[in-house]
Amino acid sequence: MSLAALTRPWAATSYGFLDASAKREIRRKMIKAIAVPGCQMPYASREVPMARGWGTGGLQVTLTLVNPRSVVKVIDQGADDGVNAASIRRFVSRVSGAAETWDTLAATIVQSRHRVPEEVMREDQVLVLQVPNPEPLRGVEPNISIARQMHADADYGKLWLTLYEQIVRKGRIMQGAAYPSLVNGRHVMTPSPIPRWDVPKLHMARHLTFLSAGREKRLFAVPPHTRVEPLVFSDRPYLVEDHAELVCRRSGISGYFMNELPQDDGTSAFEVSDSNLGIKAIRHAEGEVVEIGATWYRNGEMSQ
Using CA atoms, how far apart are residues 154 and 184, in angstroms rounded to an integer? Predict the structure, then answer.
């Protein structure tokens, strides 16, 4: 027997990198996740050419959804030009033939780490959020089997107790990113490490949202026009970050979520987190014809 007899002829990689079996399984779990909003669905997370914890879950969902007519936007902490965002966007384009874009309005698939775009997404768009830890009960119940039973029983008393303790000790709820939220009145989910500013954008949104954790092998979904309600007490309303008065040093716009940049003199400068929105604002100020879509927030207040 020769070595040539033991090898197969060269063949191109499967379309979209993932093999047909992997895509079929993920699609089935995605359909189940849509049918039971907020409920975590286990799946056999495949190996992809990037390290676990760097967006492998979101990448697998994107590769399952993408087709040659897709237009893909990838953002990392709101920025399109980050190394991780650029690498994922380029990889998806190369293995699928899909077009790349920085414009939220032009995209059909938006994959994101830690942010939801400021421009309102449409019915024909899909948001894919990368999730490092999909289990909202992990902090109060480390035993995953017991946590699953608590989800089945809708037993979220420990989560409420945690929020209550924060109010007693600090005077307010200290939970920042990944704020636990009740989906469709049934399952509590962690909406990825998006800031509190972004959680209201998922409530009754027109677009479909998938949240996937490749390292934890779990995905869940928020279908269009689904209630997403942060856990709050009736006398303690949900508050987002107070960024209404902050002004972007580059684009001059205000009323949106900002990144704080410490300066050498001890002060802070601010830049709008949604980098493409800032770019559009700059181009518009320079006299270019630029389409800026409706935004979720206006002057720091939720407008949708």
Answer: 12
